[in-house]
What does this fold into?
Amino acid sequence: MGSQTWSALVVTVRSGSDGSAVKAAQVQLNTYGHQLAVDGVFGSGTAGAVRSFQKSKGLSVDGVVGPNTWRALITGSGSGGGGDGSKLTHSQATSMFRSAGINWSSSGNCSNRNVSTCTSFDQLRRTSAEGIVTLKRASGCSIHLTGGTETGHASGTYSHWNGYKLDFATYGCISNYITGNFSFIGYRGDGAAQYKAASGNIYARESNHWDATFHSCGC
It folds into this structure.
């Protein structure tokens, strides 16, 4: 899909617009930490959220959701790129999780990624956050996160520290969904059973939690 096809498909919305295209924009904005009512009305709140998003992506800040802003909303990239590599602050990630009904905890009741007893989502890759949100919506199960980007996990390219991994509790519903819907691909070196989704994401069953590695968006 090139620029001409993309432009022909896009419905540009701005202050005063209403309808399903505005709802779609509001849904996308909420995945970036905004908390808009998805009512299809492009009011001042939506306009402010659009401007904030455009500024964060290095786009022209005009409050209009046109082709470039739509592309950035959907792909996570802006004028300077981003895509799978774009990272979130702890606040942005928790806003996404809260909106999706995902909760989290830490043994130290903290969020400093430099402390191993904390659960931090600072520098979490956006695609990892989107992957766990997609898992929550597809499964309909409760998800309770217990590990993020904090220090103390195993190192490597696809590591917690680098924003690719999340840990979550082994509740029956989500465990049954993973084992029943994803392909068993063998045991990891530490003995953890691994299941792979069609998206490429891998879920390893450790002793007291699932260790999820998000190679793509999990869509």
Residues 84-213 form one domain. The chain has seven helices and nine strands. Helices lie at 3-9, 20-30, 44-56, 67-75, 90-100, 126-139, 172-181.
